[in-house]
Amino acid sequence: MLAIIGGSGLSRLDSLEVSHRQLPETPYGEPSAALTFGRIAGRPAVFLARHGDEHRIPPHQVNYRANVWAIAGCAPAGIVAVAAVGSIRADLEPGDLVIPHQIIDYTWGRESTYHEWPERPVAHVDFTEPYDQRLRSRIGQVAATLGLAVSDSAVYAATQGPRLETAAEIDRLEREGADVVGMTGMPEAALARELALPYAAINVVANRAAGRGGSRQAIRIDDIHAVLDAAMGRVRAIIEALVTGDD
Ligand code: HPA
Asked: Less Cβ crowding at N or C end of the chain, within 10 Å?
């Protein structure tokens, strides 16, 4: 069974024939929303809306530990996380889909590990490759089979939000090697690794990052919503094919 974490623009999966919903208590409190269990074309999947059902929880207040813990309790084969990003790399346009391969974490003050004294022993998990390679290539293969273009590598910069970045901050992120920027990729990916859950992301480019291209003067939030609405059909198609091809 695959687990899907939906971000901005994907707060539910229409194709999921829902069997039940469950709001588990975790040692870290409640997840953002109830876990939604169901089937797509007969294959099981579980879905969680990262920002809550009504999209009410901003990125820095998401209870990432509870979310990933709750999902781990279902023992999924892996987590596919969907998240909107701004594009720093010039060839990535609004509406493009990206499968990131690396992360730079600029977030702060978030509860970002399960390995805290005295509950758990000190541990330093390996995070050299933050995303699961097998899951990443499966996403790429499925997209190719559907005839959908995806960019198969990008360095994801995780910023704190909820405000968007300044143009100078984006220049800095570019100098430091980032291709896309978003607010929710961390600590989600690291927590999944701590629980040994294969994790990969599908990033949807919602806008050019601050100071770039059409965002040279400002980022227009209305445009972001329109782009995400238009792109999510392709994301849903990829997720459906992933779930139905899951073994
Ligand atoms: N910056 C950070 N997060 C984002 C952006 C952005 O430009 N667009 C969508 N999520």
From this structure: C
**Atom 6 of ligand 1, residue of closest alpha carbon:** 86
Residue 192 token pair: 């999944």
Return the residue matching tokens 């806008």.
207
Q: What are phi and psi for residue 172, nearest 5 degrees?
A: -65, -45
Fold exhibited by the domain 2-244: Rossmann fold (3.40.50)
Tally of CB atoms within 10 A around 223: 15
- Ligand 1 centroid from CA 206, angstroms: 7
| pLDDT tens profile 172-207 | 999 999 999 999 999 999 999 999 999 999 999 999
Mutate to test the pocket of ligand 1, among 62, 170, 180, 183 (most ligand atoms within 8 A of CB): 183
By three-state DSSP, how is residue 193 classified? helix
Structure tokens at 140: 């790429």
CA–centroid distance, 247 to ligand 1, in Å, is 34
CA atoms within 13 A on the CB side of 57: 20
Nearest-atom number in ligand 1 for the CA of 164 is: 1
Residue with the two structure tokens 């291709």: 179
SS3 137: helix
CA-to-CA distance for 33 and 193, rounded, in angstroms?
22
- Residues in the chain with pLDDT values less than 50: none
pTM score > 0.90 for this model?
A: yes
Give the start-to-end residue ranges of the domains of the chain.
Answer: 2-244
Which residues form ligand 1's pocket by a CB distance below 6 Å? 84-86, 159, 164-165, 181-183, 206-207, 209
